[in-house]
Structure formats: structure tokens, C-alpha cells
Amino acid sequence: MAASYMPASGSQLEGLEGPDATGLREVEALIANDDFRPGEPNLPDSTDVAADPIQKYLNEISAIPLLSADDEKALAERVRQGVEARSKLEQNDLQKEKAEKLRKLDTRGQLAGRLLFQANLRFVVHLAKRYRWSQMSTLDLIQEGNIGLLHAVEKFDHRKETRFTTYAAWWIKQAIGRAVARQARPVRLPEHQIQSINDINSIRRWLQAEEGREADPAEIALEIGLLSAEDVAKIQAALAGGKTLEPSLERRWREATDKVSSLIGLSREAVSLAKPADDEDGRSLEEQLKDRSNPDPEIAIHREQINRQICEVLDCLDEMEQKVLSMRFGLQDGNEMTVEEVAEELDLTPARVKQIETKALRCLRHPDLSGRLKELLK
Q1: Do 96 and 110 meet the contact criterion of CB atoms below 8 Å apart?
Q2: Is the separation of the CB atoms in 360 and 310 below 8 Å?
Q3: Could you tell me which of 200, 182, 168, 202 has the C-alpha nearest to residue 134?
Q4: I need a labelling partner for 168 at 20 to 30 A (CA). Which of 77, 113, 196, 368 fits?
Q5: Which tens digits make up the pLDDT trace of 257-292?
Q6: Is 231 helix (H, G, I), strand (E, B) or coil?
Q7: Per DSSP, which regions of the chain are E strands?
Q8: DSSP classification of residue 131
Q9: Which positions ≥6 away from 66 have C-beta within 8 Å?
Q10: Could you read off the pLDDT of 166-189 as tens digits, one per residue?
């Protein structure tokens, strides 16, 4: 598993805005309460079936020297200059001398990004191990975390007085968390919906911990950013003063509430029909939900296919012969009729019906037709 660096683009994190102050505080608390020591490799469990490749990878990244805070700032500044130069190089009317200067800045920025990226790879491993409860392999978790680290390198601004480790932790957690969410869902959801569902769950957990109750979709709508800050302030002021909301404002709040309710519905986990239900006989959900009044769908489909192939064989007969055989052997509705019943239905004599049936069966004994009919019996 080679650890390489290249400018981040085209990943599932593309277009995602960086962390706000609250997000940075959360990861700062996570790192502060952590026992991670950058200089010590995090060895995998010996029970991990992929332990050997992980150990090899750890040996590679453990040999990479760590960076001081000043080193991080200097490299981050070069990365920032390189990103700006790369953006300016997309212009077509640049002078040759200026374009050459921008290419040098871009090259120097990519080299600085590689050093900053590689020096923090062991931190990715440490955060990835927090998600070993998921069904993803350790190597896949590390790979997703590395994608988050790439975005952190590209977007980090050292001028905001935030440590790179803190900033990178947010992006790494976003990348791994989204990958786990995609992998865990039988039905894949768009990335923006997954992020909104995660935000809703965070608000629900916060209210559960703070006030010991479930959050109402209407109050979640005020916190999740579906309404403007101005609308939220007006709604909160109206609720506090017991005033009636303006119709347009009430409509926007209701639409945001409906969207939250819809996202909560999407967040529910799918349940397998094979899962045993909570009843005394231990029947599965499939057994309980099965409609006994209707035939088994597989049997019905198979029967329909056979009837279709029989009709194709009967096309070699004339119309009267097809009617007689269909009624005699129940090819249409499964109800077989006697010669007398067919004769009465078609206004013919029983002898004539028997004659038509005999002629039709003789035609079906042709080797080509009989072979196709025998195939249906297998």
C-alpha cells in the first residue's frame, strides 16, 4: 500500500466546505483526550487477517520524520502559494516569464504538500483504527483517511492559527465517516444527504444528553441550517413572545421541518426480511408478511413463461385447433374441459371436437414441435 501524494480532486469530499469553529473544537477535544503519540506507530492486532500488509505500511511511514509546528506553517504556506499558482496557470494569456514562475511555485507547492502529507500518515492510521467496528477492512479505512488528509493539505490555512493536526483530523474523520456510511447502507444516498443525516443525528444526541428527550423535527430544522439566520431569529423571537408567525415564514419553517422528517426516515436502517420476528413461533418477517391468498411469485412467473412458450408452439395450428386444445387441457386458465363441454362451448358435435383434437395432437408430434414441448417438461 504505497503512500503517495497528489492534489486532491474528484473525491467524495469535493465541494465540501471546511470545518467551522464548532467542528474544530470537537476535534481539538478528541485529540486532547487521546493517547496518540506521533512518534509511536500504532500496531495492528495480531488477529487481523490483513496484519502483514498493514505492518509493512506502518514500517514505511514510521521512517518518515515528523514536523515541528514551524515546519508545518512553512510547508503550508508553500502549498497555499502553489494552489494559487496552479489556479492562475489555467489562464491562457500569461506571459512566458510569468507562466514559468507560476509553474515553479506550483512544483514547489506540490513538493511541500507531499512532505506535509507523508509526515501525517501515521495520524491517519490512528484515527482509522477508531472505525474498526465497521465492516470495512483496515486498509480501506486508512485509504479513505488518506483522501481526507489530501484535502486537508490542499485547504489548510496556517494564518488562522489552527494546528494542522486539528484541521486534518476533521477532514480525515469526514472522509472515513462518509465511506463507512456509504458502505453500510443497502441503498446509496447522495453525499449531501449523508452529511445532513449526520448533522441531524448529532443534534438529536445533544438534546438527548442535555435535556433527556427526543428532538422534535421542527426544532432540528432551526439548528441544521435549512433556514437563514434571520428566519431562525424571527421564529425564536415569536416563540418566546407567544406571537403568531408570518404566513410566509411559517411556510418556510414547515418545509424545513418536512425535509428533516424525510431525512430522519432515510436514516433508519434497513431490516432484512429473513430476520426472525418477535413472536413465539420464530417466523421471519418474510413469512409474516407473505400474502397467502396469492400464488408464489416465482411459481407464477415460471408458469407464465411456460404458457408463453406453449402458445408459440401452438401457433403452427389453425385457430379452431388452438381453441380445442386450450380448452381440453386448460392451457389458458388451468381448468380442463371434457369433450362434451368443449363441444357445447364451441357449438360443435363431440365427434367433431374429438376429430379436431386428434388432428392437432398429430401435428404436435412432429420432431421439431415435440422436442420443444419435451424441453418444457424438464
Answers
A1: no
A2: no
A3: 182
A4: 196
A5: 898 888 777 666 555 556 666 655 666 666 666 666
A6: helix
A7: none
A8: G
A9: 38, 39, 119
A10: 899 989 988 888 888 777 655 566
Q: At what angle do helices 51-62 and 138-155 cross, to 10 degrees?
A: 30
What SS3 state is found at 62? Answer: helix
Nearest to 27 by CA among 163, 119, 133, 207: 163
364 and 373 in contact (C-beta within 8 Å)? yes
Q: Is the pLDDT of residue 335 over 90?
A: no
Closest Cα partner for 41 from 20, 61, 24, 65? 61
pTM of the model: 0.50
CA distances from 231 to 151, 252, 255 (A): 33, 9, 13
The region, left, alpha or beta by phi > 0 then psi within -120 to 50, assigned to residue 334 is left
Listed in sequence order, the residues at least 6 apart from 94 whose beta carbon sits closer than 8 Å to its beta carbon are 88, 102
Domains and CATH numbers, the chain: 21-184 (1.20.120.1810), 196-267 (no CATH), 297-377 (1.10.10.10)
Could you write out the DSSP letters of every residue in 330-364? TTTTS----HHHHHHHHT--HHHHHHHHHHHHHHH
Closest residue by Cα to residue 285 from 302, 297, 272: 272
Burial class (CB in 10 A: 0-12, 13-18, 19+), 12: middle
- Per-residue model confidence (pLDDT) at position 147: 92
340-369 average pLDDT score: 86
Residue reference for cell 402458445 = 311
Q: Using an 8 Å Cβ cutoff, are 140 and 126 in contact?
A: no
Neighbours of 41 (CB within 10 A): 16
